[in-house]
Amino acid sequence: MKFRKLRKWATAVVIVGAGVLAFPRPAVGGMSLYTFDGNPTPDWGSSDWTLKGNAFWTNDVSMSPPLRLRLTPASGGVTGAAWLNTRQIAPTEDWSFNVQGNVNTFGAGGADAMGMYLQTGGPNVSDLSGLGTNFALVLDTYYNPGDPYPTDSLKLMANGVLVGALDLGTALEDPATFTVFASYTKATHTLSVQFAGSVNVSGSWTNLDLPALFGTKLVTVGLLANTGGSFENHDAWRVRVTGVSPPRPISQIVPPATVAATNWTYTFENGGGLNAPAWGSSDWTLNGNAFYCDDAGVNPTKRLRMTTTGQNQNGSGWWNKKRLQPTKDWAIYVHPQFTPQTAAGAGGDGLAVVLQTAGTGALMPHGGYYDTAITNLGNYLAITLDTWQNVGKDPYINSLNIVTSSGGIVGSLNVTPSLNSGKFLNVWVVYTEATSTLRVEFWEDGQAHKVLESTSVNLRTLFGSAPVTFGFTGQTGAATENHDILSTSISGTPEDIVTLTWPNVRGMSALVQESLSLAPTSWSAVAWSWTTTNQNNNWVTEVPARTNSRCLYRLIGQ
């Protein structure tokens, strides 16, 4: 990502006399305050912080205060990090990040740096290489060629690129106690920074384009420090973070322990993925009006779009990489957005997250309504985000519904404010086999969670032993909106696979499944594709296992 706008920040810097700077109280919500020094609350050793690398809690009686979080000891070539694990924040909303601490016990001149980071790599990052997209305020105690000032500095870094700095003079000499306060204002894209120590320095940077850097992602907040041939203790004893974030721990936004470890994640919004290609990926079969779009009118621009704002559209996108065993524990996360509507709060018709048995070519009938009359999807389970109330069918103007092909709507939730707000949405669906419990959580970014739970959805009765295809459908009518997917994650157990191996016969590499009847079991060809590879002079492929049936595969030329 090119972060060109950062080079055009307007900067104002003021240096005043030495003094003690208290944490200002910004007008943003969701505060997390930690006093590791035990005053006024005993947060030393708190499990809310994940310590990585050489970071540890210390009671150093040679220091005042003695209780503190030590990111690195005074030894060479070490790195330590500490990440807040109870919440993430939205970096493009108003936020603040304050730290009080010191650097001490210098060796060979003291080095290298201690940084305050916002990063997408999560709470298990142990060094700079795992940060993902990141923005940092770095207290640099060692001059390297290319640094903005010859002694100590506070550097603003976007993905490791210097975008701003404050001259701290010798304010970080041993032992140096400091307070740093950073505050971001969404309305003006302005970052204000104050440093207090042996000198007080402040600065502000306007046009800080954090939306261009982070898109819609939440970030993990924390501290990271490192030493080199020169070294020092990097300590913190007070941290405060404010900002907009989902009101629950990160540990609850990942699949529960009962869900199989197999996971696939697609981040269409930035063209990349954790373990799969995303935007433009052939892992998704798109039907009807669905397509990968790069829409300059929205941010982020890249997304998987089920429908545009055209009337009477119908689109579907199905994951073709694997089929899931729906009766085993699984979890699905979806990050959609609906923009813009034909009128404020009056878009239509909605988006559905679906498991179905009809395969990757399935498309809802135009004007179709998710109920027991739908046959195009075979047996199905749908989580619908319905933005248009059909009289006599929909319980609310905007609703989240659990729908099955056998029972129709089995659960519904009134969604307020409107789904048509244009905000980023989040849907989290978890199925627990032992209790036949389907739990759906819905929230707008920065808003409280709404929960819809049902114990009446027996997927074994609905699907039997058949594997299912996962994906999305979207529709418009006279009222319209873009139905977009920014990212999705699937965790579960894929269908059983059988590996077939046969000799490498010249010109014979394609595999077809024959349609035949073998008493006592009859079956016909299934619409699915297989890829063959040449391994050790043998053709090898994987095909779905069939329970209580017989399959014949025939090798053909291609």
Structure description:
With 558 residues, this protein is mainly beta. The chain folds into 3 domains: 4-13 and 28-243, Jelly Rolls, CATH 2.60.120; 252-491, Jelly Rolls (Sandwich), CATH 2.60.120; 497-557, no CATH class. Helix content is 2%, strand content 45%. It contains 2 helices and 38 strands. The protein has helices at residues 210-214, 459-463, and strands spanning 11-16, 31-35, 49-53, 56-59, 67-72, 79-84, 95-107, 113-119, 134-140, 152-158, 161-169, 176-185, 190-196, 200-205, 220-226, 231-243, 263-267, 284-288, 291-294, 302-307, 314-319, 330-339, 350-356, 380-386, 399-404, 408-414, 425-432, 437-444, 450-454, 469-475, 482-491, 497-503, 508-513, 516-518, 521-523, 533-535, 538-544, 553-557. Strands 1, 2, 4, 5, 7, 12, 13, 14 and 16 form a 9-stranded antiparallel beta sheet that branches. β13 (190-196) and β14 form a beta hairpin. It is elongated, with a radius of gyration of 28 Å. The model is unreliable at 1-29, 246-261, 272-276, 508-532 and 554-558 (pLDDT under 50).
Which SSEs are present, and which pair or pack?
Layout lengths: L10 E6 L14 E5 L13 E5 L2 E4 L7 E6 L6 E6 L10 E13 L5 E7 L14 E7 L11 E7 L2 E9 L6 E10 L4 E7 L3 E6 L4 H5 L5 E7 L4 E13 L19 E5 L16 E5 L2 E4 L7 E6 L6 E6 L10 E10 L10 E7 L23 E7 L12 E6 L3 E7 L10 E8 L4 E8 L5 E5 L4 H5 L5 E7 L6 E10 L5 E7 L4 E6 L2 E3 L2 E3 L9 E3 L2 E7 L8 E5 L1
Antiparallel strand pairs: 1-14, 2-16, 3-6, 4-5, 5-16, 6-15, 7-12, 7-16, 8-9, 8-15, 9-10, 10-11, 12-13, 13-14, 17-31, 18-21, 19-20, 20-31, 21-30, 22-27, 22-31, 23-24, 23-30, 24-25, 25-26, 27-28, 28-29, 32-37, 33-38, 34-35, 36-37
